[in-house]
Amino acid sequence: MNKMLTFRLDDIAPGLKRDNFKRIEEIFDEYDIKPIIGVVPQNEDPHLVVDEIDEGFWDDIRRLQDKGWIIAQHGYRHVYSNECSGLLDANPFSEFAGIPYDEQLSMISKGKEILESHGLNPTFFMAPGHTFDENTLKALSTSGIKHITDGYSLQPYEREGITFYPCRLSEPAIPEGCDTVCIHLNNWGEYEFENLREFLAEHKDICAGFDKLTDEIKPVAYNKNVRNQERRYIRKKSIKRKLLSKRFIGDERWQSYLQKSYSSNRYLKTIKRILYLPTLFINAVRMIAFLLIFLFLLRSVSYVMRTNGESKDRFAGFYAEKKDSIDILMFGSSTVGTSFSAPYMWGRYGFTSYPLSTNSLRPKAIPYLIEEGLKYQSPKLLVIEMRTFIADDAMMASDEGHIRETVDNMRYSLNRIRAINALTEEFDDKLPFYLDIIKYHPNWGMLLEPDEWKKFNYTDYNELKGFSVLAHTEGYRDETPN
Asked: HEC string of 417-464?
């Protein structure tokens, strides 16, 4: 299914916040996006009047219509008269749902006439509060409006002679299929505008005007699949509504969390969103328990999702060894793990050993591996293989893959942080090294590998004691000058 994200502006009426309206028009013009705007025909909702009434309001709306912006009739007076949640169970209030058909037809017809008197051609209906019922659909069809910007499916669909275009989002996000972001401009501040601009710049390939959505995406029939999609979303929304109730989080606390944790840097925003999560909970015990469980799962799941290989197996095997049971610890590059057989040495000479080695190990990493080894073992001898001491360190310093073989397989600790600081001097963005879930989050397939879950706690007993058996040999010619 093609991904496409478009935008709708709600509560467009005389008295809206003009500066915000002008600013979002500039942003959409910059990215050639023509949204759908919901114009209230005869506004009687005082909450929508937040600025001085602009005498040129209707001229501006006609100008936008001429520019290609799609006009939607946003109800009639925008006054909620009952507590009916309508077909989509959206909100416990409505201007239309629960009202008799004849009355709804009159409201819709009068609203449409008002918009047409101002030179507008409303081809869509946008229900205040997203609430409407079967009578609304019949009244719309009779009035000649055949489209609604609402619905919880992953694609447009037709129902009762009306085409529904899904609208599930309140802020920009990558959609599962087709979706629309519902924007209430009167409530927007700097955070929302910067977040929109940042999202459009990063995901302009999936963002489009509403005209493109209606032209390119063919609606499907309202069938069992569509109905199940909407039911799943309604269940999710019900859970979110309970979480945002005053008993748990509260909508104000949620909005405060989003703003405090915002950053234009996506990595920093991820970190801040994680760090600010406990502020959503009032109860201190819940906060602490949630944070501890989250950090434990983040640490452990991150390790499972890391790319598997000999180095990961070798380090997991080292951490699984009994404390102070190793006589000799060995450090170096791949030669150590493939040329020195710890099981053979134990059987032949009676001493225990273990290699803490990775491919193309930088000499600069060895002190940190020695410190890591000495935290768990008290060896009688340390052996350092020096093959990479004569290698080009500048080249090794930019080799992310081999650096990760070392630091990604160390347990989270201050020593690991120091190792990252020392080995990533060539990298401007070090955050994916400290929080490597950023690097490996696409590796969800690793969670389906039973053998990888054995390393959940960084341990997995290694019967070969870190020795890697080679299935073949390669020739080598020494080209060192005499």
From this structure: HHHHHHHCCCCCCCHHHHCCHHHHCCCHHHHHCHHHHCCCCCCCCCCC
